[in-house]
Amino acid sequence: MRLQMINVQEFARRLSSLGPDAYTSADVVDLATAAEVRISAELEIDAALAQRLLDQISPALPVTGAQIAASSWPPPTSSRPAAPSLSFSSPGAVDAPADQPGRPRRSGPPRGGRRPGSRRTGR
Q: Is the pTM for the entire model greater than 0.85?
């Protein structure tokens, strides 16, 4: 079985597709330097090297080195971890901030009956 390998430009493109940061080939070289790996733009990246490079990224990305170096990209969505569940401490209503003034209340006799503009037909 032949190992799957991608080049530095493809690795940078795949990293960029995972989040808000855009990665370049120079960024991949910087990751390799941080991982104490010698790398060049012509070097092919396998799963083990991809994992070493991914380990330099913080916060961690939701893929493994094997997934990012795989021939099919992007990885299947089922392989990504699910979003953490949220829990609320109080299921009740949310209090309004104290510094906001409330709505002014009307004074005077209560308004009666029909609203303006609500005509009944057929009388």
A: no
